[in-house]
Amino acid sequence: MTALLDSSWFYWAIGVAVGLPVGLILLTEWQHVLVRRQSILARPVSLLRNYLLPLAALLLLLVKATEVSAEATSVRVVATVFGFVVLVMLLSGLNATVFQGAPEGSWRRRLPTIFIDVARFVLIALGLAMIFSYIWGANVGGLFTALGISTVVLGLALQNSVGQIISGLLLLFEQPFQIGDWLDTPTARGRVVEVNWRATHIDTGSGMQVMPNSVLAGASFTNLSQPAGAHKILITTTFSLVDPPDVVCAMLNRLANMLPYRKSDVAPVSVAVGGSEYRTTVALQSPADDAAARSMFLRWTWYAARREALHLDGAVDEFSTRDRVEKALRAVAPKLRLVHTDLQELAAYATVARFGADEILQHSGEVPTAMAFLVAGRVRITATVDDGSLISVGTLEEGAFLGQTALTRQPVLAGAYALDEVTVLQIDRAHMEELVLRKPVLLQEIGRAIEDRRANVLRVLAMAGD
Questions:
Q1: Dihedral sign, CA of 206, 211, 216, 218?
Q2: Which residues form the Cyclic nucleotide-binding domain (predicted)?
Q3: Among 233, 332, 341, which residue's Cα sits nearest to residue 291?
Q4: Residue 139 predicted with pLDDT over 70
Q5: Which has more confidence, 65 or 34?
């Protein structure tokens, strides 16, 4: 018994037998805590628990407990595996603490993955060289010399390709743009869909522009997506010299305000720039909306200019003629219970107007000044929920009417926009009041319509709230 206690291997064996289970228990609990917290250190601790601690115990048993020579092949193999796992764990911990835990916007977060991969490869190579040199006694100096010479020769032979790769890596490190940003370069304008070591891929809408990073790094370009929300478009329109500038600018601002692509917290601005030209500045949510916003604005301007008797591009186009008004009155006569004398009287005051697709005919919360009767086209009725989004209430077809609360001077609960080109007959409030005073039945029908439409809007809003 005394000889056993005097043996050094006995204490090493007892230490491994007790220390290994205790260490595994402690590391297991620590790992579970890190996993529950979704910590980035969970993986390094897992390597420590599953591989490094058992290998360290095995190495101690071989060298200290069983007193196997350190020069033995079995010890060298275990020591090699142990050293490699230590290297992997250190790299994993370094990556987790330095790069994965880096704050947003820091240089550590912006560092391209390829730089981290190359550095990891170099550190692994150096670590393996030290392991083989220390454990196996290998001479690695000659190997590094040969690799250095080969690298120099290969770099000289591929200097153009390597230059593009270096330019790409520097571009990735600086990160003047990200995937999804819109760029305006000397040769292309579009959205960035891919960035690799050699080139940047830009979707121009009509094809894929592949631009070498060396060219992009040496040129001046504009990132239309940065800063976020700052992108604007300029739309130029031309009116006649006889059109009042203030009236034209007010109409253009009103149309720009209705664009669904507009940035809601930046008001559009329209100014006269001289001669007969006007320039409208509209802030957009994204450069991707440029073409759609410009097209919709110009299309709406065509309709609005004719409704307000303005001369877009100097054109004279009177749509609300006497013949069209009389034809529209005959179409809605049954709805309004009109007789021949009513048709003759209203023909002098009613107007016919057209609206383009997606154009707003009625805003929620406004008090209408006239009633509008659909002669052609379809109109979508919408309601605004608490979060500001729109939900559909219904669709109006030919013969239906809008602005019924013009008679009661109450705000409307629902908005309305055209689903396609819409033609309406408009009768102002004063003449509608004269008409319904002569026709009590019509007044009752309009009153019921007001209540029914209000109840329908409230029902849809209640369902959306649930």
A1: negative
A2: 328-453
A3: 233
A4: no
A5: 34
